Amino acid sequence: MPTLASRIPVTGRRARRRGGLGPSDPLPLVEIVLDGVNGDDWVTDTLRSQGLVFRMLGCRPADRGRRRLVRLFEIQADGAGIGPAIRRLRARVAARDIAVSTLGSGRALLRVAVPMPAICSAAFDMGDFCMSCPLMASEQGLEPAPWNVLVPQIVDARRLLRASARPGGPRPSLVRAGAYRKRWGLTGRQEKALRLAFQMGYFDYPRKAPLSTIAARLGVGRSAALELLRRATTKLAAQRFQSEPAVDCSP
User: Fold this and answer.
1) Above 60 in pLDDT, residue 3?
2) What digits encode the pLDDT tens for the residues 152-167?
3) Nearest-10 crossing angle of helices 222-240, 188-200
4) What gap in Å lies between CA 131 and CA 38, rounded to an integer?
5) pLDDT tens digits, residue range 8-35?
6) Do 157 and 7 meet the contact criterion of CB atoms below 8 Å apart?
7) Distance CA 179, CA 177 (A)
8) Where are the domains of the chain?
9) Cβ distance 175 to 33 under 8 Å?
């Protein structure tokens, strides 16, 4: 039986040596999915323990030596607000490593720099692209979420698996390797329907354009227009809450 690696397209210099790619051809990327990666992240644990709702907007190395990781969060809270969580974070990091910008009542941007986790260092070293974050626990049960990474070639999975392993802990596993699966991108029809509905005031209150008008402009029936809008908004919600929507099919 062929191994998992043998079913993945050969990339990089090896592919060119075999005649698979010319010097000007784009290099394909392989998406790998690792399961059981424990980020053990005290930053998100602190935010969650204080009842904050948050999402990570981005991350990058904080210095040239990749010794520290800077992360940017959008956070919001009710009741006691974000103050208690910020005080807890400031008790663990230097003043220069944390900054907060208020966005309004109970909302803020949080920038925090922490020692670079081994899993992040391994990804940054080879120029991988994280499509999901191993430091963000899954919304369901707070278990480690699968780590989706775009890598130059399948052999890079071994490097990430080694970096993800913890002494005495369960070993992470490679559950998928192959072509990138588009998740959150809207189809052309969904994009057109959502843009038209927004521009015509379908989402305004009070509503400026009924569904029948949107459907007529799209040249489809009411049920088809509603399904296009439903799928489009579901994808946007999935992107906001870092959850995968169902696989796309017509419409």
Assistant:
1) no
2) 888 888 888 888 887 7
3) 100
4) 16
5) 444 344 433 444 445 455 556 788 888 8
6) no
7) 7
8) 39-147, 188-240
9) yes
Structure tokens at 102: 């208020």
Q: What is the phi-psi region of residue 81: left when phi exceeds 0, alpha when psi lies from -120 to 50, beta otherwise?
A: left
Give the Cβ contact number of residue 59 at 10 Å. Answer: 17
3-state class (DSSP) for residue 207 = coil
Second CATH level (architecture) for the domain 39-147: 2-Layer Sandwich (3.30)
Express as a percent the part of the chain with pLDDT over 70: 77
pLDDT in tens, 79-130: 668 888 899 999 999 999 999 998 888 889 999 999 988 888 888 887 888 8
Task: Return the pLDDT at 11.
Answer: 39
Six token digits for residue 243: 């959850």
Cβ atoms 116, 61 nearer than 8 A:
yes
User: Which tokens is 146 given?
Assistant: 């699968």
Q: Cβ atoms within 10 A of the Cβ of 64, count?
A: 6
Buried/exposed 171-203: b ≥16 CB within 10 Å, e otherwise = ebebeebeeeeebbebbebbeebbebbeebebe
* Secondary structure of residue 178 in the 3-state scheme: strand
Which residue, 151, 166, 139, 141, is CA-closest to 241?
139
Q: Is 66 left (phi over 0), alpha (psi -120 to 50) or beta?
A: left
Query: 146: cis peptide before it, omega within 30°?
Result: no
Give the span between the Cα atoms of 157 and 21, in whole angstroms.
Answer: 22
Query: Identity (one letter) of the amino acid at 170?
Result: P
* pTM listed for this prediction: 0.66
